[in-house]
Input
Amino acid sequence: MNPLKRLGRRRASVLALLAVATLVTPGAATAAPEGVRASTLGAQAAQSGRYFGTAVAAGRLGDGTYTGILDREFNSVTPENEMKWDTIERSRGSFNFGPGDQIANRAAARGQRLRGHTLVWHQQLPGWVSSIRDANTLRSVMNNHITQVMNHYKGKVYAWDVVNEAFADGGSGQMRSSVFRDVLGTGFIEQAFRTARSADPSAKLCYNDYNIENWSDAKTQGVYRMVRDFKARGVPIDCVGLQSHFGAGGPPAGFQTTLSNFAALGVDVQITELDIAQAPTAAYANTVRACMNVARCTGITVWGIRDSDSWRSGENPLLFDRNGNKKPAYQSTLTALGGSAAAQRTGAPSPRSAAALPSSFRWSSSGALIAPKPDSTHNIAGIKDPSVVYYNGKYHVFASTARSAGYNLVYLSFSDWSQAGSATHHYLDRTAIGAGYRAAPQVFYNTQQRLWYLVYQTGNASYSTNPDISNPNGWSAPRNFYSSMPDIIRQNIGNGYWVDMWVICDSANCYLFSSDDNGHLYRSQTTVGQFPNGFTNTVIAAQDSKFAMFEASNVYKVQGSNQYLLLVEAIGSDGRRYFRSWTASSLAGSWSPLAASESNPFAKSSNVTFPAGTWTRDISHGEMIRAGYDQTLTIPACKLQYLYQGKDPNAGGDYNNLPWRLGLLTQTNSTC
Ligand code: XIL
Output
């Protein structure tokens, strides 16, 4: 909900014109249909749901050329040395997270993924660990290190290299000698993975190694046997990292076979430390193509940005020269990332992301079902921003009431959509919620606290609670989630408004999303136990140009899958509102486009039919009909329904006085 109440009619129509101007500019994000080439590595990789990352050195973060490329090109980072044992726990029990935090916080603030590297490795290991000879001591030292480090970075790391380089080079196919293998036996890897899973169940757990790219190598076979055994016995492992430090010839001929054979065991594969001597264009393209051809190859990380940043700097193995200019291999990499993107989208979805949602949508709309019901003290022009749950045999709808004087909230309930129009409107300004600016409600039940929450905007992010959703007088007075607007929002909001607060929880954390009418989606987090208090770590979860990522974001869990769905309202090149969609595998994850363009929108007048007559061309602020009603905001994967606001296409004038009504979309292209 956009409180344009401070804008007059003139400013609002200027906005609409600006929307047109912005979005017809070639290259504007929304104008580009899915599959069109993006201009950066990260954005291009994201088109097929992958990430493109780089190793980052904390010591280089003061270099503007370095950070300029980092933030422009990459949507994942791996600390090059900062999370290794000799940095984090140089002496026993004394933990130094400073350099790692610097990288982690920076990445989080920019919506970049973080790969954790690495927990158990025989190198960059302090002498106090490598000199331990007692198995019980070493086991507890190793488990403690894993637990402390993973706890510290909980919720921030997408995937951890739990064990690094444990296998021997050469023809043995066995584990190498190391203090871990020699003192604990070969079972140390299993032990490390089990400890890691209990430390942070939401992080992917990877085994990472080099010289495992050639399928026929004994080392590759040794690692493969271990992963197969882990999967067969239920030892937790989610991914295999192939470092891919290649010579000038690039990947071995069987590289793609190796990737797909590992993937077939039921793990993701990732290229984790790519660098290629002299960076030949074909060698880079071949490496990237192999990943693109394997659905479960989920991302690529190059081991540094410029040649001068590389640990192999004498071989100039990276994508940028020492001045930060793109090398020819940059172009071949970008092209290869786009090359099979279309095939990837239309091909079989990867088993892990078992995309229950289609990549394009079609809808049929009802007519306007809910209109304002003014009374003597409520002269309402529009009813907006609906939130809805189905509970106890009824739909419970909360919405904003709008008029030129400002916004407040209304509640109605009914058992069937055919009854929606005749339901009584309960104005919530008469309750403890009170009069004044309250808008854009979101309702859910908190199962732990056995309380209903109504989240809404007041200038801050606010909420009220109620033990009984059907009692409009049961709501508590507003309380704020934040003491004041978080700094990162203040720094990015420009001339926008802080609007449309949205809470969703997984089993560990609750997240509070909000928009700024200026191209940014923000995310804060707290633990499930602390909710509604403790929202912190506010970051930009996604960003685009102002009208391409405007407001009204919704985030849901898709039932029966690992997917989360993000919807954000945009303003189209016709000046009309519509929704774009993305998915992610975790709530703190990075968002990959699903139906995110103007030509392939989530919901826009162009993919909606109106059997009862075209009463609106805007598909604006709304909410999905959920599968349940709790804080997980779970939606079905099939036959989606979306309650939205629309208005007479000919209506104009003061934004706050527009005649918004509520209608219901029902998906018509559901395949299940
Ligand atoms: C390298 C770093 O790039 C160097 O800065 C450091 O001096 C040594 O380690 N395999 C790995 C990485 O898993 O951690 C290594 O990184 C390169 C080889």
User: Anything to note?
Assistant: Residues 4-35, 339-355 have pLDDT under 50 and may be disordered. DSSP finds 15 helices and 31 strands in the chain. The two ends are 32 Å apart (CA to CA). The first helix runs from residue 9 to 24.
